[in-house]
Structure formats: C-alpha cells, structure tokens
Amino acid sequence: MGGRTASDLLMGVAVVLLVLLQGTQSVYIQYQGFQVQLESVKKLSDLEKQQMLSPRLAAQSLLPSVCQHTDLPLDLQPICTSKEAASIFRALMIIADDDCELCVNVACTGCL
C-alpha cells in the first residue's frame, strides 16, 4: 500500500511540473528571417495603439513610429533595420491574431 501512495505522489508531482513547464515556454514566431516572441508582438500591438493616441510620439521617418519607442521589446528592434519593417510588423500582428496560423498550445496539432 505504501508503494501505491509513493507512485500517486510521483504522478502528481509530474503533472504539476508539466503544467509549470508548459506555462513557462515561450511561443516564437519566425518570419522573414526574424524570430520574435508572441508576447513581444502583443506588446507591439499595444505600442501601436499608444502611437495612434499620441501622434507627437510618431517620428517623421521612413521607419515605423514604434521603432522610435523606448518600450519596443528587444527581440523586435532588429526588424527596425529592415527596409520592410512596416510590412513585417503588420504581418507579425496578423499572424499573432490568427489561431490557425499560430499554434498557441504546446500540444497543438493544427487547426481543423
């Protein structure tokens, strides 16, 4: 009977560890040679909303205005060096919003 209790305890610990590990894994998006975290793209969306509300933050340049924002996540900053930065940012935000394009669950097998 003691072996059964230890086995149940180990199974419970394993389940808890799996749940914790799943919660700590980052989801990455790869697009045109750039790899960024899904959370960074969500932050990008928030920054763009701020830019719309505060036009004085928008820089008069060929770069997207979010490239001038101090809160732009580090993994998105290399995109600002690309001539296609605006289109890459738009594509990333579309991908991040599309559950069929992006597997948001670690155990995902695809969309039906």
Report on this structure:
This protein is mostly helical. It is built from three helices and two strands; from the N terminus they run αββαα. It has helices at 2-24, 38-53, 85-97, and strands at residues 28-31, 34-37. It has a two-stranded antiparallel ribbon with strand order 1-2. Helix 2 crosses helix 3. The longest helix has 23 residues, at 2-24. 11% of the residues are buried. The mean pLDDT is 73.
Task: Spell out the blueprint of helices and strands.
Blueprint: H1 2-24, E1 28-31, E2 34-37, H2 38-53, H3 85-97
Antiparallel strand pairs: 1-2
Strand content: 5-15%
End-to-end CA span: 45 Å
Strand-and-helix sequence, N→C?
HEEHH
- Structural class by sheet pairing and helices: mainly alpha
Helix content percent band: 40-55%
Strand order of the largest sheet: 1-2
Q: What's the gist of this structure?
A:
This protein has 3 helices and 2 strands. Helix 2 packs across helix 3.
Key words describing this protein structure:
mainly alpha, two-stranded antiparallel ribbon, 3 helices, 7% strand
